[in-house]
């Protein structure tokens, strides 16, 4: 897919990938073998009929293609951009064994953008009203999916969002250059057109409790609050000025528009030499955002090798093209400051040992390999914990020792009438896996509602 040149894009926040032209999309779609037993559908957590929509693109019928996708996916312009297709639908494409797999994500994005360029969906189909009310806590990918699916089935759905804008991690965690807010807002508006009401600035567990939602007449509740509390290294010096969690850094930039300071009153300090600790997509987003905000040098510090990095290969490649440096097999052990501001990082070199519970080889410190390098800003991007407010304020809701809500295979919690899905159940995962849980929960909630 065409992209902005690296030397151009590091000076702007415009989208990096530019999307297919109609001719490129049709030519790519024509490569599809239309397998009699397509594995790609099974590789998609929301089970899009991938061969059918690709066939429709190959025939030039883009409206039919997007209609096919929307039968199971309420957010195609988003998933076409941020899904890890290489390990899902494209990962099982039979063409991957011979050459390159079909660019399924890029084709999904193409028809979703085509639909938006024509003013959005022409027909919004919903079932007759059932009179049942559902509360959704959180407007991230799981919440939007549950809301959209239940609204289509005729239920009255209200989303409660703690922040001032809808989208959850899609809004605060993913930069404009990977997922433009205009695209997110267009997909949120589609869910609203299905009849879903979104109430902002409502913190469930504080503004309203789960019990109060039931008292307000909601028949079922879905909790999709994600994992929004940052993890830290717990090393000396993390309290210094100039040290951010990736959550705070990206929220300031993405949701509060710090990158437009002057136009928006959200200042953010950017150092000359920025260090990002971690190697997932959030780390790549933080590093690339820091470059665009004016950092002279940005370095990723990671305790394993590139082969173990959890970020998408595409995002690692984009970061390299843009000039992000990688300090691998390295672990920070101390941050050193001057006058209250971080100035240096003490690290130790690592080597890989046996595989750990994640299946990746465990990093082991090399004795006496300590070294130092200068840095005047550190961004910690090593994962997130679930926010504990709802679990602490809801009786009978069982959670793990890490605060994750315990559910069964239908996304039912230990409390009757309450479901949960996405990162609040699994821990930090992908947008599409959260949407898959949302679809599963919506199906079970619907069956429950039709029996009461």
Distance between the termini: 50 Å
Helix content: 25-40%
Major sheet: arrangement of strands: 3-2-1-4-16
In percent, how much strand structure appears in the residues? 15-25%
Description:
The strands form 4 sheets. Strands 3-2-1-4-16 form a 5-stranded parallel sheet. A 5-stranded parallel sheet has the order 6-14-7-8-9. Strands 10, 11, 12 and 13 form a 4-stranded antiparallel sheet that branches. The longest helix is centred in the C-terminal third of the chain and has 19 residues, at 431-449. It has 452 residues and is an alpha/beta fold. 32% of the residues lie in helices and 17% in strands. The radius of gyration is 22 Å and the shape is globular. The protein contains 16 helices and 16 strands.
Q: Brief overview, please?
A:
The chain contains 16 helices and 16 strands. With 452 residues, the protein is α/β, with parallel strands linked by helices.
Write the layout of secondary structure elements.
Elements: H1 6-9, H2 22-29, H3 50-58, H4 62-70, H5 76-82, H6 104-117, E1 133-137, H7 141-152, E2 156-160, H8 169-172, H9 181-193, E3 197-199, H10 210-215, E4 220-223, E5 229-230, E6 243-245, H11 246-255, E7 273-277, H12 281-292, E8 297-301, H13 313-321, E9 325-327, E10 330-338, E11 341-355, E12 361-365, E13 371-374, E14 377-380, E15 384-385, H14 389-393, E16 418-420, H15 423-426, H16 431-449
Parallel strand pairs: 1-2, 1-4, 2-3, 4-16, 6-14, 7-8, 7-14, 8-9
Antiparallel strand pairs: 5-15, 10-11, 11-12, 11-13
Helix pairs in contact: 2-3, 2-6, 3-4, 3-6, 4-6, 5-6, 7-16, 11-12
């Amino acid at each position: 897919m065409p992209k902005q040149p690296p030397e151009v894009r590091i000076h702007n926040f415009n989208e990096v990938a530019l999307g297919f032209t109609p001719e490129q999309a049709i030519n790519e779609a024509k490569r599809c073998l239309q397998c009699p037993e397509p594995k790609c559908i099974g590789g998609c957590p929301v089970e899009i009929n991938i061969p059918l929509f690709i066939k429709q693109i190959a025939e030039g019928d883009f409206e039919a293609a997007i209609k096919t996708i929307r039968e199971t996916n309420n957010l195609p312009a988003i998933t076409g951009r941020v899904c890890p297709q290489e390990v899902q639908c494209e990962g099982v494409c039979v063409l991957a064994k011979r050459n390159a797999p079909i660019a399924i994500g890029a084709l999904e994005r193409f028809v979703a953008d085509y639909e938006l360029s024509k003013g959005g969906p022409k027909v919004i189909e919903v079932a007759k009203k059932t009179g049942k009310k559902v509360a959704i806590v959180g407007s991230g990918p799981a919440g939007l999916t549950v809301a959209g699916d239940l609204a289509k089935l005729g239920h009255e759905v209200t989303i409660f969002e703690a922040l001032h804008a809808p989208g959850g991690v899609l809004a605060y965690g993913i930069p404009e250059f990977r997922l433009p807010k205009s695209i997110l807002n267009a997909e949120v508006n589609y869910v609203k057109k299905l009849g879903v009401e979104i109430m902002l600035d409502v913190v469930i567990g504080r503004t309203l409790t789960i019990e109060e939602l039931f008292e307000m007449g909601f028949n079922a509740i879905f909790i999709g609050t994600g994992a929004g509390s940052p993890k830290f290294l717990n090393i000396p010096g993390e309290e210094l000025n100039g040290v951010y969690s990736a959550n705070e850094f990206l929220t300031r930039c993405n949701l509060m528009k710090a990158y437009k300071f002057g136009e928006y009153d959200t200042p953010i300090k950017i150092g000359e030499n920025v260090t990002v600790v971690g190697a997932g997509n959030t780390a790549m987003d933080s590093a690339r955002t820091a470059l665009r905000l004016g950092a002279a040098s940005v370095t990723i510090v990671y305790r394993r090798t590139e082969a173990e990095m959890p970020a998408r290969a595409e995002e690692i490649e984009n970061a390299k093209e843009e000039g992000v440096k990688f300090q691998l097999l390295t672990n920070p052990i101390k941050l050193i400051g001057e006058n209250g501001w971080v100035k240096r990082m003490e690290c130790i070199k690592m080597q890989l040992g046996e595989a750990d519970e994640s299946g990746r080889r465990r990093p082991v410190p090399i004795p006496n390999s300590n070294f130092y390098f200068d840095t005047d800003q550190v961004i910690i991007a090593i994962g997130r914990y679930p926010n504990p407010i709802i679990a602490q304020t809801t009786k009978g809701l069982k959670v793990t020792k890490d605060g994750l809500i315990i559910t069964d295979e239908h996304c039912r919690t230990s409390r009757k009438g309450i479901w949960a899905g996405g990162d609040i159940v699994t821990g930090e995962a992908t947008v599409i896996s959260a949407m898959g849980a949302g679809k599963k929960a919506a199906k079970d909630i619907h069956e429950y509602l039709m029996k009461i």
